[in-house]
Amino acid sequence: MNVVIVKDYFAMSQYAANQIIELVNKQKGKKVVLGLATGNTPIGMYQELVKNYRDEKVSFLDVVSFNLDEYYPIDASHSLSFTSFMKHYFFDHVDIQMENVFIPLVERDSTEKEIQAFCQAYEKKIKTYGGIDLQILGIGSNGHIGFNEPGTPFYSRTHLVKLTDETIQANGLRENGLEVNQAITVGIETIMESKKILLLASGQDKTKIMKQFFERNVTVNLPASILKKHSNVTIVIDKGALGAQK
Ligand code: F6R
To answer: Based on the structure, what is the number of domains in the chain?
Structure first.
């Protein structure tokens, strides 16, 4: 596990964006498969990517992307959907081809069987494209990655989850009038199959969980802890998230 300590949120965002840009430019003309996250953590990274695209330092024409998760049920057009988030911060501003963009958005009122079939198809699609080359992750204050909440088996694959109250609160769903308590998320095993993983952590809200991440052994109670077993993972953490060690 590599650990990169950076000054602040901006430096973390730049580091992550540069990793993506280097990979995409190195593979020029060949497909690059990115695993993408939403939430506050990667917003700065997307802004950097858009800036570099505008400066003609990178093109996303050859990029295929798979988002980690999406609420269920939700309409793509809802302002809190991860689909809206991705368009707002990234897709609408770069030359990525929308047919190369995948988000686990399942049609409302789907049956259990239909949801399962969707999840299996999502996994299959990732495999068809040769797997995720670079997966970007944030970390929940309870240690979740994707929406794999504490207790999720490490062998999990794309599935429907019930969100914890902590996550519902952290994501401000109720105060924004969204009565949703489920989501589709790629599984922990799906994440672990990525060729390279970047876990980003910024700010004091993440100090407690990152301290646990570094100190605790691998446990399902802290889903992100499994990343320690990945052969190519980099933790990009800013001084705020390091907190106590300032
Ligand atoms: C988002 C995701 C989540 C977030 C995590 C941290 O696609 O999968 O695991 O990365 O909840 O969220 P923020 O960045 O808002 O602190």
So the answer is: 1
> Which one of 12, 132, 139 would you pick to mutate in the ligand 1 pocket, going by the greatest count of ligand atoms within 8 A of its CB?
139
Q: Which two tokens stand for residue 39?
A: 């939430």
- ipTM metric: 0.99
- Give the CATH number of the domain where residue 108 resides: 3.40.50.1360
- Give residue 246's pLDDT: 45
| Per-block mean pLDDT, blocks of 10 residues, the chain (246 long) | 98 98 95 98 98 98 98 95 97 98 97 98 98 98 96 98 92 91 97 98 97 98 98 98 72
Cα 139 to ligand 1 centroid, rounded to whole Å: 6
Cα–ligand 1 centroid distance for 210 (angstroms): 14
Q: Which residues are catalytic?
A: 69, 142, 144, 149
Neighbours of 43 (CB within 10 A): 16
What pLDDT score was predicted for residue 210? 98
Q: Please give the single-letter amino acid code of residue 9.
A: Y
In the chain, helix, strand, coil percent, each to 5?
40, 20, 40
Instruction: Determine the pLDDT at residue 19.
Output: 98
Q: Which domain holds residue 81?
A: 2-245
Q: Which residues pair with 199 in a beta bridge?
A: 137, 235
Q: Please indicate whether residue 143, judged by its CB atom, sits closer than 6 Å to ligand 1.
A: no
Does residue 73 line the site of ligand 1, with CB under 6 A? no
Q: Which of 38, 26, 103 is nearest to 64 (CA)?
A: 103
